[in-house]
Amino acid sequence: MSERVISWHANPSTPRYVPPPGAVDAHCHVFGPMGRFPFSAKAKYLPEDAGPDALFALRDRLGFDRNVIVQASCHGTDNAATLDAIARSGSKARGVAAVDPGISAEDLEALHLGGIRGVRFNFLKRLVDDAPKDRFLDVARRLPSGWHVVIYFEADILEELRAFMDAIPVPLVIDHMGRPDVTQGPDGTDMRAFRRLLESRADIWFKATCPDRLDPTGDPWNAFADFVAPLVADYPERCLWGTDWPHPNMQEMIPDDGHLVDMIPRIAPNSAAQHRLLVTNPMRLYWADEG
Ligand code: 0GY
Questions:
Q1: Using one digit for the tens of pLDDT, what is the confidence trace for 17-39?
Q2: Atom of ligand 1 nearest to the CA of 98
Q3: What gap in Å lies between CA 113 and CA 91, rounded to an integer?
């Protein structure tokens, strides 16, 4: 792997939808800059730099106030780039780390001081070499108080992961709703399985994110809107929203971030629902110390 790729829009449109004050982009990443924060030797993609200055400029342009920066797989378990971006945000960013499951209590505490509030367990084979459930469970049992676990998986392994998720003793956040087939519609097999998961515990949250990844019908992603709106309506206190900028691996289908923001009123059609999705819910998970 030698060629560095660009997976984000050079000049996204200004959204028509205006987020409420205090809105949080609760799923985004930083890449590098590589000169200071080299990518992991195990990285499955090699992006151009997409650092904190670009992230915060986009935040302002889209009308958001804060970011939750999720450690991207290209940086492995070295969270230095994520921590650097959080430190540069002036308290306007917090993060989710990827850790070696053998991490010490002291190193977890240092991540907490750096603004990390959760760990991500990634089960996508195209992104990570291994996902050791027993070791993940061990670290899930040792997390600092108030942290949660973010899980990234695809719909075909949801059932296989149920016992593992049941055993995690902290809240769970499911990335991109476990990558369902949104073309099945809101009553399809994938949505029914995901709802069974949400019904199994009151502390499972989900990210109503990534129409660009999940909806093969393309922008304006009508299948995604039809699929996700009923879920947000039925679980208004357990949903989060994010841009997913800089859209890892989307270089063949780069979304316009302004259009992504314009999805918000289609899945959360009134101001109370929007406020919960963009402010109340992420603040509860990531800035509980301010609440
Ligand atoms: C996402 C999705 C992807 C990548 C990563 O950490 C990552 O590299 O999360 C993906 O390629 O599906 O949420 O950013």
A1: 999 999 999 999 999 999 999 99
A2: 6
A3: 12
